């Protein structure tokens, strides 16, 4: 009786899928360095296409995972970076959207748009540009 109960308890734990970097279908695949440079405002074009990065709202678990896994930053460091960058006139942070569904819709209809969603929320009208290596 203990084994089935233990299995049942373990299977009820939430499973986090990986974060997938997605983009408008016209964009090429990205490497991690280019992605970091896009989300820090240092790259604005990829293969001649102007990119429009989008973020989820602060406080989102997926945003925290993206910042940690792809940019190597936490929310405070990322927000501080953009506060300084905006102050010195070096750009504005990526637009913030409230949900993965909103991110996918925006990316599907906006040429050059990139963002991130949980792998379980991928839609066929966007392209996967980068996945974290296992």
TrEMBL record:
Alphabetical keyword list: Signal
Q: Where is the signal peptide?
A: 1-17
Instruction: Spell out the protein name for this chain.
Output: Phosphate ABC transporter substrate-binding protein
- The scientific name of the source species is Thiocystis violascens (strain ATCC 17096 / DSM 198 / 6111)
Q: Lineage from the top down?
A: Bacteria, Pseudomonadati, Pseudomonadota, Gammaproteobacteria, Chromatiales
